Amino acid sequence: MPNVVGMTVTEAEREVLAAGKSVRATSARAIVAGYRESNLERGRIASQTERVGRTMYPYWDDVGGKYGEVTFTVYLSSGPRPAPDFTGKSERAARELAQRERVALSFGAAKQNFRVPKGLVSEQRPDPGEPMSRSRVTAYLSDGYPLPNYKNQTVNAALRDSGKLGFTVVQQAERNLLAPAGIVFDQNPPPDTLLPLRGPVTLKVSQGWPVPRFIGQPESAGDKLAQRYRIDLVKQAQDNARVPVGEIFDQQPPADELIPDNRKVNVTLSAGYPLPDLLGHDEAYARQVAKTLGFELTISRQPEREHTAGKIAGQTPAAGTRLPLDSPVAVVASEGWRTPDFLKLEENQARSLADEKQVALAVTERVDRATQPGIVFDQSPEPDTLLPPGRPVEILVSSGFPTPRFIEMQRSEAESRAAQNSIRLNVEKTANVDIPAGLVFDQSPKPGTPLPADSRVSVSVSSGWPVPDFVGQSEERALATAEANKITLVTVGSREDFDLRPGYVVTQLPEPGDAIPADRHVQILLSLGWPIAPDAVGRQGRNISQAFSQAHPNATVALNERVFTLQAAGTVLSQTPKAGLKLGRDQKLELVIAAEKPVWFWPATGAAALTALCGGGLLARRYRVQVNGRTPVEQGVSPQADNPGDVTCKVTRDPGSQLCTGAAADTEDAQAADSILHMKVSVDLGEQTIHSVAIEGEEG
């Protein structure tokens, strides 16, 4: 029986039928025993009565059931319970309802809501009637919604909000000195009154205010008038011979026009004497200027960041104002700026205090074992002293004790460094293909970070990586193996090797299995192979010897000469080993070459006749030499390429010169030639063997 929990009935019947094929089931039918509450979607199987894995037996009777059908009993999910409706209830009422309904109720952060009064549930998750997960509901109390402030705005803003926030607007137009025409200057209920409201919002809308008449007024009176009507009076001085000094003789906009939105009115004053600039001077200088020019001076004092204590930081009216004045000149003398106390604060607290006190901060981190990392332990200037204008407060923040760097150190060096700093070092050996043996390649904590309270640092030390075995590999394969192991192969030379072909690695240093050295270089020696015997027969032996010795300096070439041959001097007659075979381990190549002929030795024409002359003998016998059993040819004629024939040679009485074999037994020369068994003769077609000799006669 398969596990069908979570499936629909159709899916379960299909799954059970597929599993029942092994017992020849022809159909499957689910029997729904009822419904149970579950987090599963309604209609899906919440549980099954048959145990998973139990053997299923189809119905095989002819009566009372369907033949071949497998039945199983399930309970369907009625789905999760719907959430109760907590909206509109107070927190207490909501908790009581949750207790009755056995619901786990939690409250999220209160949310602004202009439709639900403050303190009542404005929304919940899940929504009322929606399925709950594990009978949990999160409710959100209404925080109300503050009525916006429409003062100093056009009435259109309130009209737009009224539709969105569900309140009505009543407008009242009135003249107002402070607000430009069309601007709200009062509202009822006041701003921040929590919505929803029981009545409309009444807005008082300004009809503006006419500009007063400044012309003919002295400057002080103009200032008072501007102050009265909250007007920003923009003054300019101009020489005027008909208007007393300091009296206004022009204004823009003219009187009785509405005060502009920016509340600025430009007036032109009669030129007088400009008031000197007192800013930056000390109090004594300001008093002396006031006494000399005859104006009244008032001095107030306040802290000033940009001015030294005792210096004038502000004055009213401003420098350049024409004298005489109807009111005193007011100046502000700086009391200086006190340095805040940053000691023992965290760095972020120090920065916040600097922003609050409007001072610049210069932060420097420094090692200080007595202070926790991130805490200010010194400052300049000292707290509550006067801060020079423009100078930042320099603070020193403890960086703690930084963890030393052990990476790239040898283990012994790292342990020594740790001991010097009273650090407990945990060493772990790890194989690493990139790092030489004995070298630290990782640590925790990282270098420069604060040292832990237990002063314990863990380091990973490389145990190295074994050098691969390159011996017997071709150079190409060895390079590929080296690249895979991040090794640089250095070919230091080559040598002959009896077993390895040319280009294969003969030896290496370091040996296979040794740790890869720090420079990651491995030296190899390549095989030159083993000398192969050249095809030397018929070629000049000394040239062959010279070329072979140059190609194989370790090889030895032995040249053995043979006098009695028809080949030209120096020609290779035979070789050991044969051409194409590898030399023995002694690297010796033996060549038999034709020797230089003595003056008494003269070969016949075509190198087919062999003549031997002995010293002092005038009488010689002519012998016929049969070559390879061929038909004899006439004396003195070279054998043809297609029919070598017989070769004629002459033998003297000299017992030291033996040329031919098989001579007639009754000749004197036969006794001298008895010890000769075979003889080689060079003919046009190559080397031939003389098989028999016959006497043809004598000649002088």
Characterize the structure shown.
- With 700 residues, this protein is of the alpha/beta class.
- The chain is built from ten helices and 36 strands.
- The strands form twelve sheets. A five-stranded mixed sheet has the order 32-34-33-36-35, with no helix packed on it.
- The radius of gyration is 61 Å and the shape is flat.
- The chain starts with 8 loop residues before the first helix and ends with a strand.
- 24% of the residues are buried.
Q: Helix share of residues? A: 10-25%
Give the rounded overall mean pLDDT: 79
Radius of gyration: 61 Å
> What is the number of E strands?
36
How would the global form be characterised? flat
Main β sheet profile: 5 strands, mixed
Q: Please work out how many helical segments DSSP would assign.
A: 10
Structural class: alpha/beta
Low-confidence stretches: 601-700
Strand content: 25-35%
Strand order of the largest sheet: 32-34-33-36-35
The span between the termini is 126 Å
